[in-house]
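Quick one: structure tokens for this chain, please?
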Amino acid sequence: MRIIYLMTTVILLLFFKQQSADTIKTDLTSLDKKLTKKGFSGVILIARNDSILFNKAYGRNDLNTVFDICSLTKQFTAAGIMKLSMQNKISLNDSLSQYFITVPEDKKNITIHQLLTHSSGLIDIVGNDYDTITEEEFLNKVFSTELISPIGTEYHYSNAGYSLLSLIIEKASGMGFESYLNLEIFKPSQMNHTGYVIPNWNTNEIAMGYLNGTESIKPNEENWNEQGPYLNLKGNGGVLSRANDLLLWSKAINNNLVLDEKSTSKYLYPHILEYKDGNSYYGYGWVIENNESEDKLVMHNGGSATFASDMWIYPKKGITIIVLCNKPEDYVYSLTRKISNILLTN
């Protein structure tokens, strides 16, 4: 009787699993039709563990098209910092005054941890993404501004803070920012189509951005220098990548391929509440929700005048959702939520 019971249980589990898979397929097919009708332009990749559930390109893109991933860049800057910490080249408690000579009194005790968690009190931006600016000019602008809040007390999103982190990576590693990420993050993850200038891009593989429905120039044709973007963008945005590479990165995180288990735990830990009336926390380059549950969510989005991006990982469920768009569409972020609901309710 026990053998019959076990066989019946297995058959029922397989049945419901198939039913769930069929429902997901139906729902994603319906969503696909709506996106096509809406004129969505980009690439969507959805994976569960080692299985790709959905992967499609829209508009004039293909599955290997490279996009400006905007603020998804921050997760790589943060990973670079964590790698340096693993290598005992920095401490997350190091202060700005240990890396920069000209730090004023009110900012000298800002720590790397506070830069990572947007709790430094620094302002968000000091200039336009593609402005030509020297390191000295950038530092003078950041250090001369008033703090938004006392150091370490509140969350205030700061792109400038992540640009400072890119400089700290250079000073601690003795390498260029992208060179260090390429060596320690991208190559070990087999992400051969991610970076600023090192991948030596084929012109045809990079998406053309759209502004108000009109083609704009490619992101790497903007006002960059030989090492990539200037400091108003460097470290906080502007990295170019494709959906397949970001899936490899998700796997590298989950398998501790680049960061060890202890470092990954800090990397994906909910360090600070984003908003007093919310339930989202900021980790190191990631937004964290539901940390203690099976539905723990690690996410980040990004946007520019011509691109939008979103990446969600459910590490305990093995789910990765990547949405890259070469139009500045606000609905990209609600789209990722819809996809998530389809996967979690079936």
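Residues 38-344 form a domain with the Beta-lactamase fold (CATH 3.40.710.10).
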